[in-house]
Amino acid sequence: MARLSMNEMTTYRWSFEEDVAQYQIAGFRAMGVWRQKLSDYGEEKGIDLLHESGMSVSSLLWAGGFTGSDGRSFRDSLEDAFEAVRLTAAMSAACLVVYTGARAGHTHNHVRRLVRDALKEICSLASDLEVRLAIEPMHAGCAAEWTFLTTLDDTLALMDKVGHPSLQLVFDTYHFGYQDDVLEQVERLAPRIAVVHLGDGKEPPQKEQNRCRLGEGNIRLTEIVAALVRGGYDGDYEVELMGEDIETACYKSLLDQSMRAYMALVSA
Protein backbone atom coordinates (compact mmCIF):
# COMPACT_ATOMS: atom_id res chain seq x y z
CA MET A 1 0.00 0.00 0.00
CA ALA A 2 1.26 3.48 -0.89
CA ARG A 3 2.64 5.57 1.98
CA LEU A 4 3.40 9.24 2.35
CA SER A 5 7.00 9.93 3.29
CA MET A 6 8.97 13.10 4.00
CA ASN A 7 12.44 13.61 2.56
CA GLU A 8 15.00 15.13 4.94
CA MET A 9 16.14 17.56 2.25
CA THR A 10 12.80 19.31 2.71
CA THR A 11 13.56 20.16 6.34
CA TYR A 12 17.15 21.11 5.60
CA ARG A 13 17.74 23.12 8.80
CA TRP A 14 16.53 20.42 11.18
CA SER A 15 18.79 17.67 12.53
CA PHE A 16 18.15 13.96 12.00
CA GLU A 17 16.74 13.67 15.52
CA GLU A 18 14.41 16.63 14.98
CA ASP A 19 13.24 15.19 11.68
CA VAL A 20 12.27 11.86 13.23
CA ALA A 21 10.42 13.51 16.10
CA GLN A 22 8.63 16.18 14.07
CA TYR A 23 7.66 13.88 11.21
CA GLN A 24 6.02 11.56 13.72
CA ILE A 25 4.10 14.41 15.33
CA ALA A 26 2.85 15.48 11.89
CA GLY A 27 1.58 11.97 11.17
CA PHE A 28 4.29 10.68 8.83
CA ARG A 29 5.27 7.03 9.21
CA ALA A 30 8.07 6.97 6.66
CA MET A 31 10.97 9.24 5.74
CA GLY A 32 13.68 9.61 3.13
CA VAL A 33 16.97 9.64 5.03
CA TRP A 34 19.84 11.91 3.97
CA ARG A 35 23.18 10.22 4.64
CA GLN A 36 24.81 13.48 5.77
CA LYS A 37 22.27 14.06 8.55
CA LEU A 38 22.43 10.42 9.63
CA SER A 39 26.24 10.53 9.71
CA ASP A 40 26.20 13.71 11.80
CA TYR A 41 23.89 12.02 14.30
CA GLY A 42 25.68 8.66 14.22
CA GLU A 43 24.65 5.78 11.99
CA GLU A 44 24.17 3.09 14.63
CA LYS A 45 22.42 5.49 16.98
CA GLY A 46 20.25 6.72 14.10
CA ILE A 47 19.21 3.20 13.10
CA ASP A 48 18.28 2.50 16.72
CA LEU A 49 16.21 5.70 16.83
CA LEU A 50 14.36 4.71 13.67
CA HIS A 51 13.58 1.28 15.07
CA GLU A 52 12.42 2.71 18.40
CA SER A 53 10.21 5.27 16.69
CA GLY A 54 8.68 2.78 14.27
CA MET A 55 9.58 5.10 11.40
CA SER A 56 10.12 3.32 8.07
CA VAL A 57 12.70 4.49 5.54
CA SER A 58 11.39 5.05 2.02
CA SER A 59 14.83 5.80 0.60
CA LEU A 60 18.42 6.51 1.54
CA LEU A 61 20.04 9.45 -0.25
CA TRP A 62 22.44 8.92 -1.96
CA ALA A 63 25.30 7.08 -3.69
CA GLY A 64 26.97 7.68 -7.04
CA GLY A 65 29.27 10.17 -8.69
CA PHE A 66 30.91 7.45 -10.78
CA THR A 67 32.06 9.90 -13.47
CA GLY A 68 34.56 11.71 -11.25
CA SER A 69 32.64 14.99 -11.49
CA ASP A 70 32.78 15.47 -7.70
CA GLY A 71 36.54 14.91 -7.50
CA ARG A 72 36.48 11.30 -6.34
CA SER A 73 38.06 8.46 -8.24
CA PHE A 74 35.92 5.78 -9.82
CA ARG A 75 37.07 3.30 -7.18
CA ASP A 76 36.37 5.72 -4.30
CA SER A 77 32.82 6.34 -5.51
CA LEU A 78 32.30 2.61 -5.93
CA GLU A 79 33.51 1.84 -2.41
CA ASP A 80 31.23 4.56 -1.05
CA ALA A 81 28.32 3.00 -2.94
CA PHE A 82 29.09 -0.41 -1.43
CA GLU A 83 29.01 1.21 2.01
CA ALA A 84 25.70 2.89 1.17
CA VAL A 85 24.19 -0.44 0.05
CA ARG A 86 25.19 -2.04 3.36
CA LEU A 87 23.70 0.90 5.25
CA THR A 88 20.47 0.64 3.23
CA ALA A 89 20.21 -3.02 4.22
CA ALA A 90 20.94 -2.27 7.89
CA MET A 91 18.16 0.34 7.90
CA SER A 92 15.72 -1.90 6.02
CA ALA A 93 15.25 1.06 3.66
CA ALA A 94 13.03 0.54 0.64
CA CYS A 95 15.73 1.70 -1.77
CA LEU A 96 19.03 3.52 -2.23
CA VAL A 97 18.90 6.56 -4.53
CA VAL A 98 21.72 6.69 -7.09
CA TYR A 99 23.02 9.66 -9.11
CA THR A 100 25.43 8.93 -11.95
CA GLY A 101 27.50 12.08 -11.65
CA ALA A 102 27.89 14.70 -14.37
CA ARG A 103 29.35 13.95 -17.78
CA ALA A 104 32.60 15.64 -16.67
CA GLY A 105 34.18 15.93 -20.12
CA HIS A 106 33.89 12.24 -20.97
CA THR A 107 32.51 11.13 -24.31
CA HIS A 108 28.89 9.96 -24.20
CA ASN A 109 29.94 6.36 -24.81
CA HIS A 110 32.65 6.41 -22.15
CA VAL A 111 30.49 7.97 -19.44
CA ARG A 112 27.74 5.43 -20.05
CA ARG A 113 30.27 2.62 -19.91
CA LEU A 114 31.68 3.90 -16.60
CA VAL A 115 28.25 4.07 -14.99
CA ARG A 116 27.10 0.79 -16.47
CA ASP A 117 30.16 -1.01 -15.09
CA ALA A 118 29.67 0.61 -11.67
CA LEU A 119 26.00 -0.31 -11.51
CA LYS A 120 26.68 -3.93 -12.45
CA GLU A 121 29.11 -4.24 -9.53
CA ILE A 122 26.78 -2.53 -7.08
CA CYS A 123 23.77 -4.52 -8.22
CA SER A 124 25.59 -7.72 -7.35
CA LEU A 125 26.01 -6.67 -3.72
CA ALA A 126 22.52 -5.13 -3.64
CA SER A 127 21.01 -8.40 -4.79
CA ASP A 128 22.87 -10.34 -2.09
CA LEU A 129 21.58 -7.93 0.59
CA GLU A 130 18.06 -7.62 -0.90
CA VAL A 131 18.49 -3.91 -1.56
CA ARG A 132 16.82 -2.03 -4.41
CA LEU A 133 18.81 0.64 -6.24
CA ALA A 134 16.85 3.59 -7.61
CA ILE A 135 18.60 5.63 -10.27
CA GLU A 136 17.38 9.20 -10.57
CA PRO A 137 17.30 11.24 -13.79
CA MET A 138 16.79 15.00 -13.54
CA HIS A 139 15.45 17.86 -15.62
CA ALA A 140 18.16 19.17 -17.95
CA GLY A 141 17.76 22.63 -16.44
CA CYS A 142 19.24 21.60 -13.10
CA ALA A 143 21.05 18.31 -13.71
CA ALA A 144 24.54 19.62 -14.50
CA GLU A 145 26.18 18.84 -11.16
CA TRP A 146 24.35 15.59 -10.48
CA THR A 147 23.73 13.43 -13.52
CA PHE A 148 23.99 13.21 -17.29
CA LEU A 149 20.63 11.40 -17.36
CA THR A 150 18.06 14.03 -18.29
CA THR A 151 15.36 11.95 -20.00
CA LEU A 152 13.37 8.97 -18.87
CA ASP A 153 14.11 7.12 -22.11
CA ASP A 154 17.88 7.46 -21.69
CA THR A 155 17.58 6.26 -18.10
CA LEU A 156 15.57 3.22 -19.12
CA ALA A 157 18.09 2.43 -21.86
CA LEU A 158 20.90 2.45 -19.29
CA MET A 159 18.86 0.28 -16.93
CA ASP A 160 18.24 -2.18 -19.74
CA LYS A 161 21.97 -2.30 -20.52
CA VAL A 162 22.70 -3.16 -16.88
CA GLY A 163 19.90 -5.70 -17.00
CA HIS A 164 19.54 -6.38 -13.29
CA PRO A 165 16.25 -6.67 -11.36
CA SER A 166 17.73 -4.81 -8.37
CA LEU A 167 17.96 -1.62 -10.46
CA GLN A 168 14.85 0.53 -10.64
CA LEU A 169 13.93 4.17 -11.11
CA VAL A 170 13.20 7.29 -9.08
CA PHE A 171 10.38 9.28 -10.65
CA ASP A 172 10.35 12.91 -9.52
CA THR A 173 7.23 14.87 -10.43
CA TYR A 174 9.16 18.15 -10.34
CA HIS A 175 11.69 17.02 -12.93
CA PHE A 176 9.30 15.38 -15.40
CA GLY A 177 5.84 16.65 -14.53
CA TYR A 178 6.07 19.34 -17.22
CA GLN A 179 6.35 16.82 -20.06
CA ASP A 180 3.31 16.70 -22.35
CA ASP A 181 3.31 12.90 -22.31
CA VAL A 182 3.98 12.50 -18.59
CA LEU A 183 0.74 10.65 -17.86
CA GLU A 184 1.41 8.00 -20.51
CA GLN A 185 5.03 7.75 -19.39
CA VAL A 186 4.35 7.16 -15.70
CA GLU A 187 1.57 4.66 -16.29
CA ARG A 188 3.93 2.65 -18.48
CA LEU A 189 6.88 3.04 -16.11
CA ALA A 190 5.01 2.31 -12.88
CA PRO A 191 6.31 -1.29 -12.49
CA ARG A 192 9.91 -0.04 -12.75
CA ILE A 193 9.62 2.78 -10.20
CA ALA A 194 11.13 2.22 -6.74
CA VAL A 195 10.04 5.54 -5.21
CA VAL A 196 8.14 8.63 -6.32
CA HIS A 197 9.48 12.02 -5.24
CA LEU A 198 6.60 14.47 -4.94
CA GLY A 199 7.50 18.02 -5.83
CA ASP A 200 5.63 20.95 -7.30
CA GLY A 201 6.80 24.05 -9.12
CA LYS A 202 5.59 27.20 -10.80
CA GLU A 203 8.01 26.89 -13.72
CA PRO A 204 10.54 24.35 -15.00
CA PRO A 205 13.91 24.38 -13.20
CA GLN A 206 16.65 26.64 -14.48
CA LYS A 207 20.04 25.84 -12.88
CA GLU A 208 18.61 25.82 -9.34
CA GLN A 209 15.63 23.78 -8.21
CA ASN A 210 12.92 26.14 -7.02
CA ARG A 211 10.07 23.99 -5.79
CA CYS A 212 6.94 25.20 -4.06
CA ARG A 213 4.48 23.65 -1.65
CA LEU A 214 2.43 20.79 -3.05
CA GLY A 215 -0.63 22.02 -4.90
CA GLU A 216 0.61 25.60 -5.23
CA GLY A 217 2.43 25.05 -8.53
CA ASN A 218 1.21 24.02 -11.96
CA ILE A 219 2.34 20.40 -12.13
CA ARG A 220 -0.57 18.01 -12.66
CA LEU A 221 0.04 16.07 -9.45
CA THR A 222 -3.47 14.64 -9.13
CA GLU A 223 -3.40 13.28 -12.68
CA ILE A 224 0.14 11.93 -12.27
CA VAL A 225 -0.74 10.07 -9.07
CA ALA A 226 -3.86 8.64 -10.74
CA ALA A 227 -1.74 7.45 -13.69
CA LEU A 228 0.74 5.82 -11.33
CA VAL A 229 -2.09 3.99 -9.61
CA ARG A 230 -3.47 2.82 -12.94
CA GLY A 231 -0.02 1.50 -13.79
CA GLY A 232 0.11 -0.49 -10.58
CA TYR A 233 2.48 1.63 -8.49
CA ASP A 234 1.92 1.07 -4.76
CA GLY A 235 5.22 2.30 -3.31
CA ASP A 236 6.12 5.39 -1.33
CA TYR A 237 5.32 8.98 -2.24
CA GLU A 238 8.20 10.96 -0.77
CA VAL A 239 7.78 14.72 -0.46
CA GLU A 240 10.97 16.46 -1.64
CA LEU A 241 10.86 20.26 -1.60
CA MET A 242 13.59 22.89 -1.86
CA GLY A 243 14.06 26.40 -3.18
CA GLU A 244 13.37 30.01 -2.19
CA ASP A 245 9.80 29.40 -0.98
CA ILE A 246 10.86 26.39 1.08
CA GLU A 247 14.04 27.79 2.64
CA THR A 248 12.12 30.40 4.59
CA ALA A 249 9.08 28.25 5.38
CA CYS A 250 7.96 27.18 8.83
CA TYR A 251 8.75 23.48 8.68
CA LYS A 252 5.97 22.41 11.02
CA SER A 253 3.41 24.20 8.85
CA LEU A 254 5.04 22.72 5.75
CA LEU A 255 4.66 19.20 7.11
CA ASP A 256 0.99 19.77 7.89
CA GLN A 257 0.33 21.32 4.49
CA SER A 258 2.13 18.45 2.71
CA MET A 259 -0.01 15.92 4.53
CA ARG A 260 -3.21 17.73 3.59
CA ALA A 261 -2.13 18.11 -0.03
CA TYR A 262 -1.27 14.44 -0.31
CA MET A 263 -4.63 13.37 1.11
CA ALA A 264 -6.32 15.58 -1.48
CA LEU A 265 -4.25 13.96 -4.24
CA VAL A 266 -5.09 10.39 -3.35
CA SER A 267 -8.76 11.04 -2.65
CA ALA A 268 -9.42 12.96 -5.88
Top keywords for this entry?
17% strand; alpha/beta; TIM Barrel; 46% helix; two-stranded antiparallel ribbon; eight-stranded parallel barrel; 268 residues; 11 helices; single chain
Overview of this protein structure:
The protein is an alpha/beta fold and 268 residues long. The protein has a single domain (3-267), classed as TIM Barrel. It contains eleven helices and ten strands. The protein has helices at 16-26, 35-41, 43-53, 74-91, 108-128, 152-162, 173-176, 182-189, 221-230, 244-247, 251-267, and strands at 3-7, 30-34, 56-64, 96-99, 133-135, 167-172, 193-198, 200-201, 211-212, 236-239. The strands form two sheets. It has an eight-stranded parallel β-barrel with strand order 1-2-3-4-5-6-7-10, surrounded by six helices. A two-stranded antiparallel sheet has the order 8-9. It is globular. The model has no long low-confidence stretch (mean pLDDT 96).
